Structure to design on (229 residues):
């Protein structure tokens, strides 16, 4: 089945630093990838839609200058949390879907970000 | 964008059948219904997807009535390992850039011994 690999699975960083999270579709091409954030005991909140070769579309309330998304190829999207603060600590999840099909979303295993 | 409503939580016991219903009153003609399972600190995992009537795979069945305004995920003979949060999503993946997969609150299923 389709596999989405997300890296790292967890990261601890100091306040003010930047962290990059990678999301790769391993056995299919993904023209669109989605980035979510999930706080404890809550549902997934969509942050942005990442389209290959174009600028990401951010959901209302998500700062595009803080959460930089790059989708340079059909198999890789990255999310960079810039100048991270403790309130950015969360579980970040990416997903992707096969292009041109009614296929479901395939999710990465998430990245636990802790900002100290 | 079809909004979904599910029970917040459900309890069951090992070996029982569990049915989780999702309401999506404003589902569009081309929308599919997809269910995901999520364990703590993991990404959601695809369970089943359907458009109408009944779909069955090796882990679950999905029942969709004729009006498609709701759907029921059926898990036969649950075990402790089925304890998770279950989400239903409604949308048309072929809608291209306007497909916004939005999660509702999901249903937290707890299976007791």
């Amino acid at each position: 089945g389709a596999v989405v690999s997300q890296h790292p699975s967890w990261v601890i960083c100091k306040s003010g630093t930047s962290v990059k999270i990678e999301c790769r579709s391993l056995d299919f091409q993904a023209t669109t990838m989605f980035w979510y954030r999930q706080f404890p005991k809550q549902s997934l909140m969509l942050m942005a839609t990442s389209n290959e070769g174009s600028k990401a579309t951010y959901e209302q309330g998500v700062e595009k200058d803080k959460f930089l998304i790059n989708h340079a190829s059909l198999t890789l999207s990255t999310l960079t949390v810039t100048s991270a603060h403790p309130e950015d600590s969360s579980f970040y999840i990416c997903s992707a879907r096969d292009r041109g099909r009614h296929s479901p979303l395939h999710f990465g295993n998430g990245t636990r970000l802790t900002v100290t | 964008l079809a909004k979904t409503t599910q029970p917040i939580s459900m309890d069951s016991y090992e070996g029982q059948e569990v049915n989780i219903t999702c309401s999506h009153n404003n589902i569009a003609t081309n929308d599919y219904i997809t269910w995901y399972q999520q364990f703590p600190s993991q990404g959601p995992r695809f369970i089943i997807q359907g458009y109408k009537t009944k779909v069955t795979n090796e882990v679950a069945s999905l029942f969709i009535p004729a009006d498609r305004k709701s759907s029921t995920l059926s898990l036969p003979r649950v075990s402790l390992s089925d304890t998770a949060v279950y989400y239903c999503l409604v949308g048309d993946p072929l809608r291209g850039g306007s497909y916004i997969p939005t999660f509702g609150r999901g249903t937290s299923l707890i299976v007791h011994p």
User: Anything to note?
Assistant: Chain B has a mean pLDDT of 92. Strands of chain B lie at 9-13, 18-23, 32-38, 45-50, 53-56, 61-64, 70-75, 84-91, 107-112. Chain B touches chain A through 23 residues (CB under 8 Å).
